Recover the amino acids of this structure.
């Protein structure tokens, strides 16, 4: 999704996997997860090969686009709440919420499994419920 957003012309794009990997302990459950979701190691960004397109510790997130179904709902809910409640600078107090956009709002969709699967609309409802609690 981050590559697609960059192709649309957005210049400072990070996936939530990339973004969260830059913040030590933003996901307190990470040590207990046995799966990987293509999340680069924070050390990878500090290497000569990969550098974030902006200073994530100083420059606010100016907008959030959810363009695909989250793989790690717990982490993604936490990180999005951090971004939205702090004005785009997680860990730096409260601030004005940056804009949030969803590319699809389907509550459910049909996949190979016989029963419908939860879609981005369900994730949006979960995020709204947690954020507004």
């Amino acid at each position: 999704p981050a590559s697609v957003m960059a192709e649309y012309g957005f210049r400072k794009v990070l996936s939530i996997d990339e973004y969260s990997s830059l913040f030590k302990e933003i996901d307190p459950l990470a040590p207990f997860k046995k799966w990987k979701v293509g999340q680069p190691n924070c050390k990878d960004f500090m290497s000569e090969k990969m550098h974030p397109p902006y200073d994530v510790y100083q420059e606010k997130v100016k907008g959030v686009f959810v363009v695909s179904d989250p793989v790690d709902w717990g982490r993604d809910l936490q990180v999005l709440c951090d971004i939205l409640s702090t004005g785009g600078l997680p860990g730096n107090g409260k601030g004005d919420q940056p804009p949030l956009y969803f590319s699809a709002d389907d509550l459910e969709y049909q996949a190979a499994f016989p029963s419908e699967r939860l879609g981005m609309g369900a994730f949006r409802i979960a995020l709204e419920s947690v954020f507004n609690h």
In short: The first strand starts at residue 64 and ends at 66. The chain has one domain: 2-104. Residues 73-85 form the longest helix (13 residues). The CA atoms of residues 6 and 13 lie 6 Å apart.
